[in-house]
Amino acid sequence: MTGKVYIVGAGPGNPELLTIKALKVIEKADVILYDRLIGKEMVEMLKKMNKKLIYVGKENKESGEERQNEINELMKKFVSMGKIVVRLKGGDPFIYGRGGVEAEFLARNKIPFEIIPGLTSINAVPTYAGIPLTHPNISSSIFVITGRNLEDIGKSALDGTIVILMGRDKIRMICKRLIELGKDPDTPVAVIENGTLKDQRVFFSNLRNIADIVEKEVRGPALIVVGEVVKIGEKISSKISSSL
Fold first, then answer.
1. Residue 166 annotated in active site
2. 188-206: per-residue pLDDT in tens?
3. Which end of the chain, C or N, has fewer beta carbons within 10 A?
């Protein structure tokens, strides 16, 4: 038997937003190596499928390189046993993850593999909340960054829509940085907690006041959208008929 690794994007956490191809691969998998960011609902679905699940997410205090070496060896081990391995990663495996690093390892070691894209939270979460990242009358560009790289926010980001991942704990610093760069303190901001999941919540405010709200109310994973497009979401978010 010949084993194979599928590097699969799990999407933003809602199992119904998995791609058809991702679901087909998961159904035939022998082993699933999954990250923390795939979400609790996805984990519950996998448990019901009676799959061999191995959690390989990196905790805050762990060394990324050390953990990655462990994951690489697990993939190599199971493939050598003839197993079909799904390496399940939150969102899209090639956006703010180590999917590219893992693909390089597999190619270098001549291990058969395939990459299956996933719906990234960058656009899926705002869309689910009714916030268009681009709009013909408002914004034609998107600037994406994580809360860990605030120094990379420059003046070039100020004209379009700004999407910030993993920025909940640095929301006050983010707002301060944008205002210092020249962004109007009254610029609309939306913070989407647990995007696409059953307990999704959306908080609307502006750069001047959103930090106070987030620090008081938000505890789950959150995505931040900054820009005039947020006004559209504020109008239609509560009117969206959700199937969650």
1. yes
2. 999 999 999 889 999 999 9
3. N
